[in-house]
């Protein structure tokens, strides 16, 4: 379970450019939920993910993971139980290292990186099988440097790597936004399968309203640092893109856009 | 012949330094100026140990440790105090000048009468009186080869993977639930350890510790790494090697250092010794322009 309690966050505090991002923001995600988060630019979606992962500190408020406060815990320690995939496919992998080396690192996430051999040869068939499941032909490119792969291939690998260890949470930050529609569909289906198979608690920020409607069991719309729409269960299953779009237009008009 | 021998010897010694610079410059992407201080630090530590009459074998690991400590300090300044990379190196380099003077006790410490790794009773006993001149080269080659092989092996370990990853994509290291700062500090430590090791061998080969030996060490290391990597790229393009076995950048870094020493050596032979630093600078510039031209021609094809 994941909880954001009474979060306050200001940008440029004390200057004329002071901007309030969150004011007494509350958010809770139950174990096993797959939450899709939509909202306009600057509504606080990515900032929320940054708060959860620890790459951003709240000015006030508390973040709880499984009822334990983690606000003071450093980002890298928090990420031990969190897998995160970024919008930019380059951020989830090491371009100068091979697929095999990248996967070997991902498998040891959170463990001690000592003087053992970096790659365990016995694991190669296992990695190969995991890559084959992606259906992108990566299983025959294990010795290829990741920098030579396409954006879609890299994102698929990032996704795979982020869940190679038993993580509890999966944070997806517009992870299909930089991909072409077809590749984005492949990655999205893959995401859904992984979340279901591994029973992960997932938060997905997306600008693709179709994905938001189609995938996940909860839908949240953010606006000016607040969740203005929050649908679960049956209501979520019935939601149509037009419903989301209608609400979206409503709040945009309020803004004067 | 003696001229060629001394160029290869010095080239290989500076090659060890270049290995260190390779870690920071190429792997960590960290312009580390500590090198100008840690090179003479290795020499200073060695000079003091030899003056105490300690077995020369111990000078190498102890110099490595001293250099590693200096590198760790640079890393701490950069990571914990959040000082920019270039400035952390400059601060450490400046501080090390004093440290080196204090350790060595003087600007210049002659070691001609002391036993060194090249000149000691053990080797004299083996060769029956006089150690042949080629033997220094063999010894330097051994130290260089051990350093290179150790580094190659290290880069294939989990810890080595992490080091490569931090220069490549810091965010991934954080994603792996590892503190990227610690990895950088470790990298700087290993790098400057190698640099100090090089300084130790250098001062024993020269038979003297000189405080000014570090001036321009960074340039030599950088030039060697750049020449080495360009050479590596050129050859992989021509012969399509895959960077396996012996055919690695770490090997070519040594080739780069020898080439660099050869160019400056020949230049100094025909110019005044005063011109040495100028020649070094011009050589580095020439190499950089050559690399640029090479890359452009690569793009055109």
Automatic annotation (TrEMBL), chain A:
Keyword Phosphoprotein carried by entry: no
Pfam families named among the record's database cross-references: ABC_tran
Keywords of this entry: ATP-binding, Nucleotide-binding
InterPro entries with a match to the protein in the record: AAA+_ATPase, ABC_transporter-like_ATP-bd, ABC_transporter-like_CS, ABC_transpr_LolD-like, P-loop_NTPase
UniProt GO molecular function: ATP binding
Disulfide bond among keywords: no
Domain ABC transporter residues, every copy: 2-249
Gene3D superfamilies, per database record: P-loop containing nucleotide triphosphate hydrolases (3.40.50.300)
Protein's UniProt name: ATP-binding cassette domain-containing protein
Organism: Blautia hansenii (Ruminococcus hansenii)
UniProtKB/TrEMBL annotation, chain B:
Pfam family, one: BPD_transp_2
Signal peptide range in chain numbering: none
Membrane topology annotation: Multi-pass membrane protein
Localization annotation: Cell membrane
Record's keyword terms, sorted: Cell membrane, Membrane, Transmembrane, Transmembrane helix
UniProt keyword Membrane, yes or no: yes
Keyword Transmembrane helix: yes
Principal subcellular localisation of the protein: membrane
Transmembrane segments annotated in the record for this chain: 12-28, 58-79, 86-106, 134-155, 185-202, 214-234, 246-272, 278-294
The name this protein goes by in its record: ABC transporter permease
Organism: Blautia hansenii
Lineage of the species this protein comes from: Bacteria, Bacillati, Bacillota, Clostridia, Lachnospirales
């Amino acid at each position: 379970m994941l909880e954001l309690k009474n979060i306050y966050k200001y940008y440029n505090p004390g200057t004329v450019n002071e901007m309030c991002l969150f004011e007494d923001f509350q958010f809770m995600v139950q174990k096993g939920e797959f939450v899709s988060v939509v909202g306009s630019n600057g509504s606080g979606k990515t900032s929320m993910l940054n708060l959860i992962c620890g790459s951003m500190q709240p000015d006030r408020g508390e973040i709880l993971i499984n009822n334990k406060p983690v606000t003071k815990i450093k980002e890298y320690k928090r990420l031990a139980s969190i897998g995160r995939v970024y919008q930019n496919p380059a951020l989830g992998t090491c371009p100068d290292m091979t697929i095999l080396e990248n996967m070997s690192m991902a498998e040891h996430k959170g463990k001690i990186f000592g003087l053992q051999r970096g790659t365990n040869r016995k694991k190669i068939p296992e990695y190969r099988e995991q890559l084959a499941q992606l259906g992108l032909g990566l299983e025959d490119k294990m010795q290829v440097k990741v920098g030579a792969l396409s954006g879609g291939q890299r994102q698929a690998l990032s996704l795979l790597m982020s869940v190679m260890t038993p993580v509890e949470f999966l944070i997806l930050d517009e992870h299909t936004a930089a991909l072409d529609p077809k590749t984005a569909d492949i990655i999205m289906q893959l995401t859904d399968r992984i979340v279901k198979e591994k029973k992960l608690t997932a938060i997905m920020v997306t600008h693709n309203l179709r994905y938001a409607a189609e995938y996940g069991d909860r839908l949240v719309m953010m606006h000016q640092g607040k969740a203005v729409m929050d649908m679960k269960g049956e209501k979520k299953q019935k939601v149509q893109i037009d419903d989301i779009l209608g609400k979206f237009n409503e709040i945009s008009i309020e803004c004067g856009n | 012949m003696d001229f060629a021998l001394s160029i290869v010897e010095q080239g290989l010694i500076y090659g060890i330094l270049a290995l260190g610079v390779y870690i920071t410059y190429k792997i960590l992407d960290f312009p580390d100026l500590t090198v100008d201080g840690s090179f003479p630090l290795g020499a200073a530590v060695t000079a003091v140990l030899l003056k105490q009459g300690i077995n020369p074998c111990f000078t190498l690991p102890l110099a490595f440790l001293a250099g590693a400590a200096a590198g760790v300090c640079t890393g701490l300044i950069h990571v914990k105090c959040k000082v920019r990379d270039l400035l952390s190196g400059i601060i450490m380099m400046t501080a090390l000048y004093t440290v080196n003077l204090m350790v060595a006790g003087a600007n210049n410490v002659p070691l001609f009468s002391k036993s060194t790794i090249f000149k000691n009773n053990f080797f004299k006993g083996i060769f029956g009186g006089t150690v042949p001149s080629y033997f220094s080269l063999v010894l330097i080659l051994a130290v260089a080869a051990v350093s290179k092989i150790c580094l190659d092996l290290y880069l294939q370990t989990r810890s080595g993977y992490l080091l490569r990853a931090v220069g490549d994509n810091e965010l991934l290291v954080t994603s792996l639930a590892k503190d990227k700062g610690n990895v950088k500090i470790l990298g700087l430590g290993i790098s400057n350890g190698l640099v100090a090791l090089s300084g130790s061998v250098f001062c024993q080969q020269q038979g003297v510790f000189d405080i000014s030996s570090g001036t321009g060490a960074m340039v030599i290391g950088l030039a060697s790494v750049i020449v080495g990597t360009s050479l590596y790229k050129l050859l992989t393009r021509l012969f399509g090697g895959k960077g396996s076995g012996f055919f690695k950048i770490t090997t070519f870094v040594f080739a780069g250092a020898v080439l660099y020493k050869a160019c400056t050596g020949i230049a100094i032979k025909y110019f005044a010794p005063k011109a040495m630093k100028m020649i070094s600078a011009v050589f580095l510039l020439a190499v950089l322009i050559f690399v640029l031209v090479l890359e452009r021609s690569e793009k055109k094809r």
